[in-house]
Amino acid sequence: MLKLQEVSKVFRVGAFGGKTMTAVDEVSFEVGRGEVVSLIGESGSGKSTIGKMVLRLMSANGGSITFDGDDISKLDKRAYYRKVQGVFQDPFSSYNPIFKADRVFSMIKEVYFPKEADRVWRDKVASALNDVRLDAGQVLNKFPHQLSGGQLQRLLIARALLLDIDFLVADEITSMLDASTRIDVLNLLADLKLRGLGVLFITHDLALGNYISERTVVLHQGRIVEYGPTAKVFETPEHSYTRKLLASVPQLHRKWEGV
Amino acid sequence: MTLSVQDLRVYYRTLRGEVKALDGVSFDVADGEILGLAGESGCGKTTLGKSLIRMDGRMKHVGGRVELDGENLPIGDTVKMNPFRFTEVSIIPQYSMSAMNPTRKIGRMVRELLDSRGVTVDLDELHRRLDLVELNRDVLGKYPLELSGGMKQRMVMVISTLLNPSLLIADEITSALDVSTQKAVVTTLKGFRELGFVKSMIFITHDISLTNQLADTIMVMYAGKLAEKAPADAIVNRSRHPYTQLLISSLPEVGVRYAEKKLTGIPGNPPSLLNPPVGCRFQDRCPLAFDKCREEPPAVEVEKDHFVACWKA
Amino acid sequence: MTTTDPITAITAPDPDTPPISNRREALYFAVRNGKLLVGVGIVTIFLLIGIVGPFLVKSPPMEYVGQPMMPPDGEYWLGTTTFGQDVLAQFVYGVRSAFVVGVLAGGLAALIGMVIGFVAGYRGGLVDEILNMLTNVVLVIPTLAVLLIINAYLGVRSVGMQSLFIGLTSWPWVARAIRAQTFSLRSRDFVDLARLSGVRTGRIILREIAPNMSSYLFMTFILLFGSSILIASSLDFIGLGPTDGVSLGVMLNHANQWSALPLGLWWWFIPPGVAITAIVGALYVANVGLDEVFNPKLREL
Asked: CATH number, domain at B41?
């Protein structure tokens, strides 16, 4: 469904853009229908840049990104966002603090469903909230600071569902949530694939990637160092970097060696 | 006994009333002990860390005593705390990356800091400690801007332990770091204790798996109160408080897959601390709650060094 | 979780208590802020003088109505000029024109500054560089000299013309400040989310970014308002004021020209001088107050 072929992104840095910095270096992978692919990397690995390029918030310098065979840079943006959506890391920064949180719904109604009757729309919202296991009475008509991080992230997933999307980019969406709510949001994401959605799950947390994804891409300094079925990457990692990462993950029931 | 906290209460003043961020917490930290303070956002762990060293303007010391090495800590009085700060109690702040003055060279900053405490710089000692955290001695002649995040973090760690404080508070210092750097930081902290740079430590984090790599004892807080405190191993394997149990069972570990074993979180949200519920603060989310939970459960020592605040424990 | 302020983290999920919106909170602090109340009070008094005054005086400001050089008395509250003009009449018309200049010139400068600042900050890249260059060019123009030359060439000068010149030359710092703020807001996730909702650039700026800076924009306008009055008064005083009306600066200019000071006609130059100082000063005091209201860090709890 989503296919990246030798995608690169080079930033110009320094005064007058004299220097360049390669954030993403010829990255290729695919995400199929009903599949979760984890994009794992540390800070500076280029994982978020890839997410932004897929969401067309940034353009690639090289290579191609295609969605169902079409080059995404040639598609109409509004039509593209009907099918592909994103949820970001910081739930509190994803909402304009001076407006009520459910404004994220009315924003897409204005653009995509201007003619829909209010009553029909309300039912749709209610059903989307139900899908993400939120109680409409608890979350509608509230300001972002009155809701918890978990509720805010779920609202954003509900927003994506309202558009009837095919693909979701989830960029570190659980990293700012508490442990007790994190796993529920993660389960929700895993449930989406049962509906046939493709999910690009960007994370620095190997345990989370391992928990929900079918395939895993490990990035290091903009390059793919390991790519394969999740079980294989985690059980028999080939690249030394992957092994080092795995060894550094704090595990509840296993103490680090040499500490 | 290095640190002894008795029934500590610290409230935040807000427009809507007092937020009871820390509402009657008692615990001890022994000599040489590393206490891991775990809990979710808003549980009071950062408030606790801050109140032991420097309260901000909105915080109010409502009740309770803190003793450090047998001496009363005047935590409610910012001025009287001055002689203790940095020499007796020291903190590595959450954003140590931005804790350094960008216009000062690091060496000069260290000197000024020590001058303000009436101590002269022992350059040999400073160099020795820089070597220990694998920082080049040149960093003293650099500006903070020239250091990477990990280097700044190590520099702050060296600075805050330079006068061998009795108690070091590390507040979420690893949460912004990559996993490989986390491990290095934890190793360094442990080394600091072995070398006697600090006597005891409170390591605040939301990540129980990480705490377990470092702490001797873990204290789990919930909504401004102590839920459970026990040796790390007991918390991880034999926790008695339902909150701790649910929290631990919601953690995905490498090897656990959604397709094979679906984990669940804890339904609901923590209570508002403006008007916390009477009795146990976890009662609304607790699957075991019963009538008695409307009374507040005291923290009881169920076995040696294992304290639980729950009627069912 | 790790970046939230402890207060918001603690009070965040709080379904039972009614929300205190930012606006209500600002109002709460506004009515308790002495600086703001004093500033607004003084400006309001002068505003009333400017609006109502001209309807209450009997004669047009430039008409010769009575004995020359009369000190204040029951009939002419502020006395008369060397030519027997009513100083009070001139004063109330002058106050009115000061507000007109403030609103027109301040409004124009705010408008230009905002448009350029928003577009440069949001679009970035080449657009930003070009607009930034334009801003810098206008910034280094010696405004007063240019105004002198332009004013000197134009035969008839009106308050409107004067406002236009002031407005066209005093926007650059606004543009720079707004550009910087927009730049930091642009990278917030909610802006990306609006883009993902198919919202177009213009609407994103107007409905996502600008409302977040509303307090800042308001303060900018206040500052521009005050500085426009000050610039206008300076121009008037050196004889480049409106030729078809009266203003506080023109009064000072005339008083100076006809030796009011050596002749001891204090009632001629003190009122306009005090008015200019009071209005501009009160605006700055109010601005400091507003800053405290909008910026929680400056509030005294």
From this structure: 3.40.50.300
Which pLDDT score is estimated for A113? 92
Measured from the Cβ of residue C259, the count of other Cβ atoms closer than 10 Å reads: 11
**Which has the closest alpha carbon to A13: A21, A22, A5?**
A21
This prediction has a pTM of: 0.83
Whether B285 is in a domain gets the answer yes
How much of chain A is helix, strand and coil, in % rounded to 5? 40, 25, 35
Note whether B270 contacts C11, CB cutoff 8 Å.
Answer: no
**B125 in a structural domain:** no
In-domain check, residue A179: yes
Do C121 and C178 contact (CB within 8 A), yes or no? yes
User: C13 to chain A: which residues are within 8 Å by CB?
Assistant: 146-148, 151
C29-64 confidence digits (pLDDT tens): 777 888 888 989 998 998 888 888 888 777 777 777
Nearest-Cα distance to chain C for B313, in Å, is 27
Band of pLDDT at residue C299, cut at 50, 70 and 90: low
Mean pLDDT by 10 residues, chain B (313 residues): 91 86 94 93 89 85 92 89 89 78 87 85 89 90 85 88 93 83 89 92 92 94 95 94 94 84 88 90 93 93 94 87
- Give yes or no for a contact between C70 and C76, defined as CB atoms under 8 angstroms apart: yes
Of C21, C196, C198, the CB nearest to A86: C196
B104 inside domain:
no
- Please check the confidence at residue C17 and state whether its pLDDT lies above 50: no
ipTM: 0.89
pLDDT reading at A27 higher than 60:
yes
Nearest to B204 by CA among B254, B248, B167: B167
Q: Which of C20, C189, C212 is the best residue to mutate to test the A interface, defined by the most A CB atoms within 10 Å of its own CB?
A: C189
Domains parsed from chain C with CATH numbers = 24-54+82-298 (1.10.3720.10)
| Domain count within chain B | 1
DSSP E strands, chain A: 2-13, 19-31, 36-40, 62-67, 70-71, 84-87, 167-171, 198-203, 215-220, 223-229
Q: What is the CATH number of the domain that holds A39?
A: 3.40.50.300
